Amino acid sequence: MAVLRFPDTSEIIENEPAIRVALSGLGIDYERWDLDRLPPDSSADAVLAAYADEIAAMKQRGGYVTADVIDVNPTTPNLDAMLARFDKEHTHDEDEVRFILAGRGIFFLHLNGRVAAVEVGPGDLLRVPRGTTHWFTLCEDRRIRAIRWFQETSGWTPHYTGSGLDGNYQPLCFGPAYLGPRVTTPFALDQNA
Ligand SMILES: [Fe+2]
Q: In angstroms, what is the span from residue 185 Cα to ligand 1's centroid?
């Protein structure tokens, strides 16, 4: 379930229909798809097969020609370098379409002079149109698994705006992985009790 925030005004929307309406007004498609059709540890091929009908429909809807499964976790080689490519404000020459299978992350969308932070999690589908200024960060667990669609894979090269705006926004996640401020207890807890 997504969380939509407007950090400049501290407005938070956590209700699915309200998120869909708010993002639709900004030209961003948001949907929820079911996740219960296959086990979470299924292979990429199994995922693509299980969602074959939806993948084909999305291809037709947006003119996408390929789809794949990206899987990123803390052990992914060169993870910091990979993330650094996308956590600066940029655009693409094609849509950025993601259906989140596991993990969480934040799409910061810079639209009409305002920044919307869309925290996505399992079951969320987001379609960011080509040319939208945005950046992306992972949540604390540095994990994301998602189906991606492409019009042509070369179109996904980021074009950086160099605005520096991304440096003004904390990549804070509020979803299930967010545990709030750490509280240290003055005595040891018996973990086996
Ligand atoms: Fe991007």
A: 41
Distance 186 CA to ligand 1 centre (A): 44
pLDDT per position as a tens digit, 141-153? 999 999 999 998 7
Q: Calculate how far, in angstroms, residue 169's C-alpha sits from the geometric centre of ligand 1.
A: 16
Q: Compute, in angstroms, the gap from residue 91 CA to the centroid of ligand 1.
A: 6
Q: What is the pLDDT of residues 10-42, one digit of tens each?
A: 999 999 999 999 999 999 999 999 999 999 889
- Residue 176's pLDDT band, with cuts at 50, 70 and 90, is low
Catalogue the long-range contacts made by 114-117 (C-beta closer than 8 Å, 24 or more residues apart): 114/6, 114/8, 115/6, 115/7, 115/8, 115/165, 115/169, 116/4, 116/5, 116/6, 116/22, 116/23, 116/26, 117/4, 117/5, 117/6, 117/7, 117/169
Report the predicted TM-score, pTM, of the whole model to 2 decimal places: 0.89
C-beta separation of 156 from 77 below 8 A: no
8 Å CB contact between 165 and 110? yes
